[in-house]
Write a structure and sequence with these properties.
single chain, alpha+beta, about 20% helix
């Protein structure tokens, strides 16, 4: 389900984002339109995405997700509607790749969290997912690859 996790240092990555606080059961309905809105603003401003779409989660409860949906960009984006400048942070992170459909992400995160605890890593702050291969790349969910990133306490 997940690849062998690794520990690495990330660099700050400039991004364009839309902040969403939504009911968990609305994720599949609202995520795609937010990505479309984000890409339309980038195109209108002549800003080029530099990577895959990501979700940077600030708070997750049983009922809600509070997160940025975003993408790295080649130059700063000007705020427009819900789109604002944002970033993925420089941090010491544990990273793994989850393979499979999005419905399996909770189990993938569970496996990843168990690995972190078993190896004595203390989780810090937010977390993010990068959707490297998904429905935009292939209709086969078995081929999808989601990068899971969990910042660690020093």
């Amino acid at each position: 389900m997940i690849s062998t996790p690794e520990i690495l240092e990330t660099k700050t990555e400039r991004a364009a984002v839309i902040r969403l606080t939504i009911a968990r059961n609305e994720m599949m309905k609202l995520f795609g339109p937010a990505v479309g809105e984000l890409m339309a603003v980038l195109q209108a401003q002549g800003v080029t995405p530099t990577g895959a779409v990501f979700a940077r989660h600030y708070k997750i409860t049983d009922e809600t997700f509070d997160f940025d949906v975003g993408v790295g960009v080649d130059k700063p984006v000007a705020a427009s509607g819900r789109v604002t400048p944002g970033e993925l942070p420089a941090a010491k992170v544990a990273r793994t790749i989850y393979s499979g459909p999005y419905e399996g992400l909770p189990a993938g995160w569970g496996e990843f969290t168990a690995w972190l605890k078993a190896h004595g890593h203390e989780q810090a702050g937010d977390l993010w997912e990068v959707y490297n291969v998904g429905p935009q790349s292939t209709p086969d969910p078995a081929q999808w690859r989601t990068e899971l990133n969990r910042p660690l306490k020093a």
